[in-house]
Amino acid sequence: MASKTQKKPAGEPEGLTFVEPHKKQGLTFMMLPTDRLQVIAHQRKPSDTHVKKVTASIERIGFLAPVVVVPPADAGDPYLIVDGQHRFLAAQALGMKELPAVVVPFEVARKMLGLNVEREPNIRERSSVALSIYRELVAVEPDLPEDDGQVLDSIEQAHYVTLGLAYEQSGRLSGSSFEPILKKCDGFQDDPLSKTLPLREERAAKVLEADRAVKEIAAALKETGAWHQFIGQQIIGYANPLKRTRKQASFDETFEKMLAKLEELKEKPEKVLGGSG
Question: What is the per-residue pLDDT across 218-277, written as a single tens digit (0 to 9) for each?
Fold first, then answer.
């Protein structure tokens, strides 16, 4: 692995540049003060339990895995952590003054945010991260097509953006129940991001409308004593027009049919108990 001492920017720590062996990207290794580090806003909420486990691990064997950071825009700004927030929080708890860090370009960091595997994120966390990255792309490159490789590399699934917008409106959304449907009808578009963001806001509103209908039907069934823990999934399964569809479908047609089916169930909620739709 080739390496050389990086030329030190004014006011910044010394670094050692090296070539990453697979993609042959030039990266930099640094020892950074913990007070110059900050977790990037796109990261999902940390787990207190995991922080405690990492703290115990560091106490036993030391801090062996560097955090991954984005360089500051200006001298004196913090280095933003894109991988290793639990290690960073554990180091803070232990009073560590500096940490080993690998500095990567922001283009690499953006791709990493969707691949962080320190802890398997749930669908709400994936959606929140996807939406944050999406909004940043809209702000920086509004004319970029949504199906451009830069977007595809940064956001794992298009429907996570739709769900992220829906979760902002309702934290009680059952996103995982709608995900199998969205996977078949909510793909990336070939329009520019400036146009697709309003489109995704409209789609989020449709998901929320369906979610409200499902909860209303479930409440009616509960009054009859027919409620059970998975009644929401059963209602969505009954109303799902794509159960036998393998090809990518139209979002608008799918939710038009689904909402119509849910309206029927509002009138006769017991129909969901009699079999599939």
Answer: 999 988 887 788 889 999 999 999 988 778 999 999 999 999 999 999 999 988 887 444
Domain boundaries in the chain?
3-111, 121-274
**Mean of pLDDT values over 145-150:** 92
Question: Domain spanning 3-111: which CATH class is it, in words?
Answer: alpha beta
Phi, psi of 82 (to 5 degrees): -105, -15
Tokens read off for 180: 């199998």
* β pairing state of 3-6 and 15-19: antiparallel
The pLDDT, as a whole number, for residue 7 is: 43
Who contacts 139 (Cβ-Cβ below 8 Å, separation ≥6)?
A: none
CB-based contact 19:1 (threshold 8 Å): yes
- Model's pTM, two decimal places? 0.66
CA atoms of 247 and 268, how far apart (whole Å): 31
Block residue for tokens 């001492």: 5
Residue corresponding to tokens 């995982």: 176
Residues paired with 80 in a beta bridge: 38, 70
